[in-house]
Amino acid sequence: MTEKVGLAPPVSPPIRLTRGSYGFKQRVIDLSAQSIDACYQCGNCSSGCPLAQEMDILPNRIIRLLQLGQKDDIINSETLWICASCFQCTVRCPRGIDIQAVMDTLRQIALEEGIDHFGPGQIDPEQAAEVPQPGLVGVYRKQST
Amino acid sequence: MTKVAYYPGCAMNDRASHLDRSARDAAVKLGFELDELDKWTCCGAVPPVSEERVMNLIAPSRILKSVRDSGRDTLITICDFCYNTLKRTNFSVKSDIITRKRVNAFLADDEPERDYIETDDSLWKDYTGEVKVYHYMEYLRDVLGYEKITDNLKRPLNGLNIAPYYGCVMLRPLNEIQLDNPENPSIIENFIISLGAEPVKYSYRTECCGSYLSISNPAASTRLCYRILTSARNSGADAIVVSCPLCFYNLDSRQQAIDEAYPDFKALPIFYFSQLLSVALGVEYSRQGFEKHYADVSPVLDKIGGISGKGDAK
User: Fold this and answer.
1) In the predicted model, what is the mean pLDDT of chain A?
2) Whether residue A57 sits in one domain with residue A87
3) Domain span at residue A69?
4) What domains are defined for chain B?
5) Buried-most residue among B109, B167, B264, B306 (CB within 10 A)?
């Protein structure tokens, strides 16, 4: 059986709260206009997410890390690039957090840091010739600067 | 014939032009005309989330403003991405005064004659979200009525079991789209019933097909599409009907990759809603672009032709 990273108990060094972590959290709140602290970790977002099994950090854990301002963990996570922006989490959140908006904001911040995930060089030319344009526009807008 | 403003969007204008054609054919049969906007641009496909990205609202706002300026208040689109982007942009412009002012400040650059010192007799009129954006199916439901379809059926799809597939952006997020219940929708089901076919209940109709991940992470999209297609087939579907060109591409063309990855997979024909509609209203099969499909649609077409006896002679 393959190891499911997203479901394993988190193994991480003790979390350190700094002034920087507060700044990061505040930036996300300002950009996304979502109340991050409303999350009480029910896990509805992760259980409904069709792509959760591919993620290294589940959506609810992203929100928890965000509450603690753990920028590096979040920005370097694969989760941001696996999310397909399907709004399932947004629709199901009982606390009314638009999680998709939070993910988009995190992607935006990651891109600002220069973490480009996808470029024209990585696309299969055969596919590029036939995929409908919304897919191409979508992937470049979400995953590259 | 009533003319309704129509925004085709990039996919419908180019790679999926057969879907655009079927939507126009069906409209004519139903007594209205899709009147393509004189000048339009890409809507941007994905709406921005943060306030800083007001730039991404400009293109859709410009499209919406051109509809209003031409004296119309209704805009139809047949692509879910365009629908989502245009409707959400309209929502932000309508509900958020700061966004509205910023967007209009940019739009004003298009109009060199604008008097920047606003006076009462200024020709400029801010776009405030007056246009109502309709999905083609929403227009059928709310404006035209399903009876109109049922009355005009030439080839009723009796005996076909069709699985509706909603995907993600057609229904969500609820507060901005307000089309249907995002968890238990019924708009495509009712559409299928109006064509005389039987809607199939299955588990994955609102589950994402992977959207643009099809390009950046094909394996993930393959898995999601496999789940959707298998679930529909196991529930007895003869075909799936979709309303988004990207869902169409993922569910149809991806069947080749699914076939390689999952040995138990069986192909399932995919139709765009406008294709089924125009087929049921009596438009020839040759105008539907079925040759562009990956999954073979002939079993379904045989069933339609066989039952009503009015299929095209092959």
Assistant:
1) 89
2) yes
3) 15-114
4) 2-133 (1.20.1050.140), 156-308 (3.40.50.11810)
5) B167
**pLDDT, tens digit (0-9, with 9 covering 90-100), for B113-139:** 555 555 555 567 889 999 999 999 999
- In angstroms, the separation between the Cα of residue B189 and the nearest Cα of chain A is 20
Cβ separation of A84 and B210 shorter than 8 Å?
yes
**What is the tens place of the pLDDT at every residue in A53-106?**
999 999 999 999 999 999 999 999 999 999 999 999 999 999 999 999 999 999
Q: Angle at the Cα of B225 (from B219 to B231), degrees rounded to 5?
A: 140
CB contact under 8 A, B172 and A86: yes
Of the candidates A85, A117, A132, the beta carbon closest to that of B16 is on: A132
Cα distances (angstroms) measured from residue A129 to each of B9, B28, B231, B279, B303: 18, 31, 30, 28, 33
User: Is A4 inside a domain boundary?
Assistant: no
Same domain, A110 and A133: no
The type of residue at A97 is I
- Indicate which CATH number applies to the domain containing A71: 1.10.1060.10
CA distance A91 to A70: 25
Looking at the domain assignment, is residue A3 inside a domain? Answer: no
Best of B205, B208, B223, B228 to substitute, by most chain A Cβ atoms within 10 angstroms, is B208
Say yes or no for a CB contact (<8 Å) between B45 and A137: yes
Residues B11, A134: C-beta atoms closer than 8 Å: yes
Which value does ipTM take for this structure? 0.88
Chain B nearest C-alpha distance from A117 (Å):
9
> Is there a contact between B173 and A90 if contact means CB atoms under 8 Å apart?
yes
Q: Which residue has the tokens 């995190």?
A: A106
